[in-house]
């Protein structure tokens, strides 16, 4: 079927969008949709490459018991703090089921008895079990090492949640009334830490949890670059993987565990 050559509506739309650059953050354009300012963003113009592998080092000796700054920052960065409890919902059930991309946990070393408080999130494995079991390919690992979920192909089977040895994934049980355009979310999908991929693809060099940590416990960067801050830190201190016995080669490492 032939297509019309004159499309004034599309032209007008393009002109409108071009003029809208630099709008204020969190502008409401439709129910549940917010625009974030992109005036200073530098969107990716090249393909994701395996020349880099993103990861982080977390110094648990700097993680204060009771500190929740990284969790709060993650929630705000990704819109999890915008969740609205459904009317009449049970408080205990709501708290148990609400999505969490970072959890603060305590781990005890069975060999030394040492107890560490640390943030637990997706470990961004080189060989992620969540990807192996996903029947639709919604769980995938990018060339730069970031493990993600495509919400458009996620069918909510939750196989990936069962396969993850870190309990790092959440399922969205209720309708999402409010969300950020940078981190779209929806009922019936699985989600988890994506190392602030929206920052990665717009020129950002840090993560929200790293920025929020007042003690400097989190160092993020390119694990393949020997001169990066994270590589330099890992060369100075002994590091461990959580569940190293699984040989997943995690992108998140810890010290003093």
Question: What is the global morphology?
Answer: globular
H/E element sequence: HEEEHHEEHEEHEEEHHEHE
- Helix fraction, binned, reads 10-25%
CATH class category: Alpha Beta
Number of helices: 8
What does the main sheet amount to? 3 strands, mixed
Please name the CATH topology: Alpha-Beta Plaits
What is the overall pLDDT average?
86
- Terminal CA distance: 65 Å
Q: Taking strands numbered 1, 2, ... along the chain, how are they ordered across the largest sheet?
A: 1-2-9
Please count the beta strands (DSSP E, at least 2 residues each).
12
Label the CATH architecture. Answer: 2-Layer Sandwich
Integer-rounded radius of gyration: 20 Å
Give the low-confidence spans.
1-40
Report the sheet-strand fraction: 15-25%
What this model shows, in words?
The protein is globular. The model is unreliable at 1-40 (pLDDT under 50). It is built from eight helices and twelve strands. The strands form five sheets. It has a three-stranded mixed sheet, with no helix packed on it. The protein has a single domain, classed as Alpha-Beta Plaits (2-Layer Sandwich). Helices cover 22% and strands 18% of the residues. With 257 residues, the protein is an alpha+beta fold.
């Amino acid at each position: 079927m032939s297509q019309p050559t004159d499309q004034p509506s599309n032209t007008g739309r393009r002109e409108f969008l071009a003029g809208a650059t630099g709008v204020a953050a969190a502008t409401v354009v439709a129910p549940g949709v917010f625009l974030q300012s992109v005036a200073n963003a530098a969107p990716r113009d090249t393909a994701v490459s395996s020349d880099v592998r993103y990861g982080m080092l977390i110094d648990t000796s700097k993680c204060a018991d009771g500190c929740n700054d990284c969790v709060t920052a993650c929630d705000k960065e990704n819109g999890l703090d915008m969740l609205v409890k459904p009317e009449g919902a049970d408080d205990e059930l709501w708290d148990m089921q609400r999505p969490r991309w970072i959890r603060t946990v305590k781990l005890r070393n069975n060999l030394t008895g040492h107890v560490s408080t640390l943030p637990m999130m997706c470990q961004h494995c080189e060989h992620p079990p969540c990807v192996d079991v996903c029947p639709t390919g919604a769980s995938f690992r990018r060339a730069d090492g970031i493990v993600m979920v495509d919400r458009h192909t996620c069918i909510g089977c939750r196989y990936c949640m069962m396969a993850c040895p870190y309990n790092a994934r959440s399922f969205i049980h209720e309708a999402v009334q409010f969300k950020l355009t940078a981190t779209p979310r929806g009922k019936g999908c699985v989600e988890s830490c994506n190392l602030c991929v929206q920052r990665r693809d717009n020129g950002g060099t840090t993560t929200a949890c790293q920025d929020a940590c007042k003690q400097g416990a989190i160092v993020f960067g390119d694990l393949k670059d020997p001169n990066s801050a994270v590589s330099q830190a890992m060369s100075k201190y002994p590091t461990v993987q959580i569940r190293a016995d699984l040989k997943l080669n995690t992108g998140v490492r810890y010290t003093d565990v």
